[in-house]
Amino acid sequence: MVKNSFILIISQEQEEKEENKGSVEFQVFSFTNKIRRLTSHLELHKKDFLSQRGLQIILGKRQRLLAYLSKKNRVRYKKLIGQLDIREPKTR
């Protein structure tokens, strides 16, 4: 659970900047928190198909936001990927 403690540190930094709740970085951060919670839930409850579907929907939203950010500002994208410890998607 080292990643969760790291996320808490980032969330405290994000809470200081409450005016940025609509920013792409904050949205990706909140989706990442939800993804990590749902993943740990699904490790215990393997047949919870509604949660699996919810996880897939959130993963798609985060993927679209990251694609948008990578097109608009590559520096912010790389910084966010590094902070949240997310793998960069493979390109075709």
Automatic annotation (TrEMBL):
Q: Does the keyword Electron transport apply?
A: no
Spell out where the chain crosses the membrane.
none
Which keywords, in A-to-Z order, does the entry hold? Chloroplast, Plastid, Ribonucleoprotein, Ribosomal protein
Q: Which Gene3D superfamilies match?
A: S15/NS1, RNA-binding (1.10.287.10)
Q: Chief localization class?
A: plastid
Quaternary arrangement and interactors, per the entry? Part of the 30S ribosomal subunit.
Know the name of this protein?
Small ribosomal subunit protein uS15c
Q: Which gene encodes it?
A: rps15
